[in-house]
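Moderator note: this is an archived Q&A kept for reference. The question asked for a predicted structure of one protein chain; the sequence and the answer are reproduced below.
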Amino acid sequence: MSAVAQKTAAVAVDDVDITFASKRSKVTALQDINLHVEQGEFVTIAGPSGCGKSTLLKAVAGLTLPSAGSVQLRGEQVKGPRQDIGYVFQRAALLEWRSVRGNILLQAEMRGMDSTAARKRADELIEMTGLTGFEKALPHELSGGMQQRVSLCRALLHKPSVLLMDEPFGALDALTRERMNIELNRIWAETGTTVMLVTHSVAEAVYLASRVIVMSPRPGRIIEEHTVDLPKRRGYAETLETPEFHRVSARVRELLGASGAEE
């Protein structure tokens, strides 16, 4: 891709290899990764366990630097931890002694954001994610799905250019996970945030994505990518019944089955 095109991409990963070395051995986690994510895209990454999906997100966040190649965010080289991204992990990682609003505003305190603007933004996110009425609740008073909503609000508080999500719903029960998928699709459609999400669920990968990336077993390589030709705002049950959903899902399952991945 040309330098001009790279600058328009929210994320540009070019010829990236990542190798972890110890005294005993070297392990290549990622090899020859090329991925460009445009502003406002929702890209999901599927692949077998241990293929380097989470390592790829960490490289975009600047938490792990490439052994070869480069990563850029909005045309700027990633050389270390980035402040302009949001990160949601599998566990909500909330502070047990802080309320819903307090956990969300922790982001503002750490970044030195204007307190008035941060509180206004927190209230907007609380309303957007259906947490109104639970502002003063402590984490142990919330369901797993609600805790993840708080985590999502915290990650979105500073309006990040890119939201990275590493198996954010993997620990939830099936019904709650489905509801969170619906909620995340709505939030993405309303905010236009660029999202990269790692998942082991084929249905989740296809339902949420504008593009699905499929990776091989370690060393992780991108073996195929598929554009999902569906409306940005999607109902759940009806989407799962569309020919497009079945087309992409079948191919992703075929690829993951061939690689020995569990769905």
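Archived answer notes: Strands lie at 9-21, 26-38, 42-46, 68-73, 76-77, 85-88, 162-166, 194-199, 211-215, 222-227.
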